[in-house]
Amino acid sequence: MAPFEALPCALAGAIAMPATLETLATIKNPPIVIARYGNIAHGPARGNNNGPATPSRARNLEPRQLNY
Question: pTM of this prediction?
């Protein structure tokens, strides 16, 4: 083996090392993100308040028989 055959591989590893260390540091200590959710609905909320009142679906269901 010639003395400089491994040089390209060694240089590639040396170039990739800082990115690897930065990635590992980010995984170990993730950045703190403080996010606030904004109200993106501009204007009043929409609703259907003009129609006839309909009974709740829960009142129309009959009890189910449990089969064990």
Answer: 0.39
